[in-house]
Predict the 3D structure of the following.
Amino acid sequence: MSLIEYTQIWLEAFVTLSLFSFLYKDNPCYKITEHVFAGLSAGYYFGLIWHAVILQQMIDPMFDNGKWWLFIPGILGVLMFSRFSQKYSWISRLSLAFVMGNTAGIFLLSELHGKVLPQMQSTMLSLGFENGLGSFVLAVIVVAGVISTLTYFYFSREHKGLLGGVARVGIWFIMISFGAHFGYTVMARISLLIGRVQFLYFDWIGSIINLFS
């Protein structure tokens, strides 16, 4: 193993142990690692936005394809930096208003046609005996969960009587969904923890053993 590989492994081990040290208490090693990670993330996203957005979607089309109208969104982007000035920060509201309005209009249609309508269609089309009784029962449970969950978020009437009962069923479906998502998140984090522990045990400690063997 070369010196560069040893240095890389020890650096990764230091960063990993510094992050884990926060479980004991806040300390300078954790702060250094946190600041380095934040700085690297900011630099990476700055370079990504510069090459993937500013160059590819504005500057190159303007000079290569003659799309000079792109200077308008460029100006709107520059106006966003007026937020750093207390006196002229109101100018950035023009860009924010354009971005929010344009994004809301685009995502309204994309979410409606890409998620809402297909999910409604998939939910209702599964109501059939083509795949057996078990699939039909599961489809009924899914439809009942969707209807009861939407009923829970219907606040135009007080949740009493039949409406209140359906809303309470919706709460159970919501809690089951939250539990499933939480379990999935915990499993993902444990998977990351296992990967780091394996790195420390096999790679870092293994490099120490190889170094003195």
